[in-house]
């Protein structure tokens, strides 16, 4: 069971498709670097909500790491809501303490 993640497909860790939605290039590069060091190889990074939704529709990631306050027309919570309306892909929000105080997650199921 070494190098396996327990999730809906029971894929080996390096086969889990991870979508990172982050608009700050330095932050997204650091996230990717850490994921690679952990053994993940299938990582996609997008910087906008539109690209995230497109990636979910075409690439079918296994998990989404979502910046909660992404810049653009729609924010992270709204992007997550759109993704969840299309799929049951797990979404993990990335946020600072201050961001969590400003954002309500009540309507994301």
Describe what this molecule looks like in 3D.
The chain has 109 residues and is α/β, with parallel strands linked by helices. The protein has one domain: Response regulator (Rossmann fold). It is built from four helices and four strands; from the N terminus they run E-H-E-H-E-H-E-H. It has helices at 25-37, 49-59, 76-86, 97-102, and strands spanning 17-21, 42-46, 63-67, 91-94. The chain has a four-stranded parallel β-sheet, with helices on both faces. Helix 1 (25-37) links the parallel strand 1 and strand 2. Helix 2 (49-59) runs parallel beside helix 3. The termini are far apart. 20% of the residues are buried. Residues 1-7 have low confidence and may be disordered.
Question: Brief description of this entry?
Answer:
The chain is α/β, with parallel strands linked by helices and 109 residues long. Helix content is 38%, strand content 17%.
């Amino acid at each position: 069971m070494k190098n396996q993640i327990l999730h809906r497909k029971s894929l080996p860790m390096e086969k889990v498709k991870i979508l990172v939605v982050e608009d700050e290039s330095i932050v997204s590069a650091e996230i990717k670097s850490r994921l690679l060091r952990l053994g993940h190889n299938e990582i996609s990074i997008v910087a906008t909500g539109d690209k995230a939704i497109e990636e979910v529709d075409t690439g079918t990631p296994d998990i989404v790491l979502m910046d909660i306050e992404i810049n653009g027309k729609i924010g992270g919570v709204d992007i997550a809501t759109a993704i969840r309306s299309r799929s049951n892909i797990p979404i993990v929000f990335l946020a600072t303490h201050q961001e969590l105080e400003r954002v309500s997650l009540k309507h994301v199921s």
